[in-house]
Amino acid sequence: MEIDLEAERKEILNRYKSLIQACKRTLEKGDKEMIRKAFEVAVESHKEMRRKSGEPYIYHPIAVAHICAEEIGLGATAIVCALLHDTVEDTDLTLDDIKGLFGPKVAAIIDGLTKISGVIDQSSSIQAENFRKVLLTMAEDIRVILIKLADRLHNMRTLEHMKRDKQMKIASETLYLYAPLAHRLGLNTIKSELEDLSLKYTDEAGFEEIVSKLEETEPERKKFIQKFIDPLKEILQEQGFKFKIFGRPKSVFSIYNKIKNKGVRFEEIYDLFAIRIVIDTPVEQEKSDCWKVYSIITDFYHPSPDRLRDWISTPKSNGYESLHTTVMGPEGKWVEVQIRTVRMDELAEKGYAAHWKYKESAAEKENNLEGWLKKIREMLENPDANALEFLDDFKLNLFSDEIFVFTPKGDMKTLPSGATALDFAFDIHTKIGEHCIGAKVNHKLVPLSYEIKSGDQIEILTSGKQTPKEDWISYVITARAKSKIKNALKEQRKKVADSGRELLEKKFYKCKLDFTLQNVNDFYKYLRLPNSQELFYRAALGNVDTKEIKEFQKHKEHPEKATPRKTESKKIEQLVSSARGSSDMLVIGDDLQKLDYKLSSCCNPIPGDDVFGFISVGEGIKIHRVNCPNAVKLLSNYAYRVVKAKWMNEHLISFLAGIKIIGTDELGIVNNITKVISNENNINMRSITFDTDDGIFEGTIMVYVHDTKHLNHLMDKLKKVKGVNNVIRVDEK
Question: For residues 65 and 106, is the Cβ–Cβ distance under 8 A?
């Protein structure tokens, strides 16, 4: 196909004009010229490049800059950086060139956005290392991560042009890291879109099913929303409020999670949408006016007392402010109502980027953000931390609900839901955490592992003799506490290692081997240990014997006779290349491929499921479903170990699958269910368990099926049994 370069040039200019329009309200004197300069540099740098879709590459940086301006509300510096974010990585332009053209601030942000090049040890993860680099720069300038989120959002919007394995990797990484980050920064709209787009690629069938059901039920929903809001509109107008009231559908991802986690059907989810009331009122009247609106609503509709959420008095740590209640609406349906002001609404949609617009509350919010960035800086201070370990710790603090607790003096502290007394101790001060021996919660003595609740008043008990223990890591959930405990344990380990050094020196002397730096380094590499400290630590515990030193001597003197020890990364490399073979695809059930693979027990895949192979040294290749609970993490962090896989068309083999059945306990129902399974479908059962409670039964049946089509057919038949309310697939064997 012939490319019309003139038409493309016009389109590039149109997109640039649209960008300038989008950032008009934030531009100051000289900003437009700087953006124009960045645009021209980007166009020139990327002129020969095209995206997978065949479009000019420059469309991407313009789109990222547009998201920064319009959807996040960032200023000129961020827009310049967005236009240039790929130049250092993908073109001949260097960081020094950027610095010379646009100054050190722009260069520092671009550096944070540029991926790490070169080879990273395969035991680590290049994704994790890159993310850590982004966070390092983010701790100095929050715009780095906001541009990164805009970049990721545009990549997700155009993901259909990528290969399937790339789609899976990028979607999983987005779900694992970027959506929680957007949530933590208060970018709710972007968070929801990233989640929905990720779901589209990680479980296409589940996504499409919810989308089509939402479309089917839309007219009915609109009718109900109108019926609900009409009387409220009338009275709010009478009371003189300036307001907007509308129904907001819940995201596809949040509906999907409810179906999956609660085992309910789409039809059983009552909160498919929320009613939002946004009032225009001065800052000083915000709180009282929101409660007035709440009072008007509850005059019309009965509220659920345990469903009131007041995030106006105590905003979430990402700056979110709103008043939520759930009320009984027309037709006996529960409806969630969100009450907020124009200011709160903008903060909820654009997060921290919108805070600068509202100077009255900016100081408080910036402190909040600063507190979070401080925690990240503390985590990054540990130079020895493995990038993947760091990532897991960081992830812990992103997406959890929050609880509010109090010190003995009445100061309020915000912690993630599930935090323990030990987390609280480390949150107050590292030293208090390290010497903590217990706590008093509401004046009652509790252990370190006690899970604290919102509203608790906590007093920490300490002892100078107490030091952190290995099992403390399992007592805490906050990244700060985990990182501080690990650092303290490392210090303790270092002291033990110092004594081990002397012991090892004596053993070297016995074997007539010089205790030189070179020999020590060669010896720990020979034993496949990560560093000399680990060697000294093992020596202190008595786990390095003279026999190993003598074998090492022989190896040094006659390396040609020595059998080489394969490193883990080499083993993985070999496994990856043999698994991928010539076709780049692992065929499950193909006897021609003599590969050691197992079906993973965490998700129990069967033919027909969308699957991938994951390579581990100890257990060979494990086959996982792409919507497996662990898949997101594996695909996000260890993409290099993932192999594309497909099933052979084999109908003679049976695979084990689990079904959960919920319904009303009627006479003979178990017999009717087993009849359907055994007689009508000629399916063998491995196990069956049924529990009843107050007239409701729940049963789990393990059956042997050929593929997903076979399983779905059975589930459809079971749904028709009288008394059965729901039938869902379960993963556990």
Answer: no
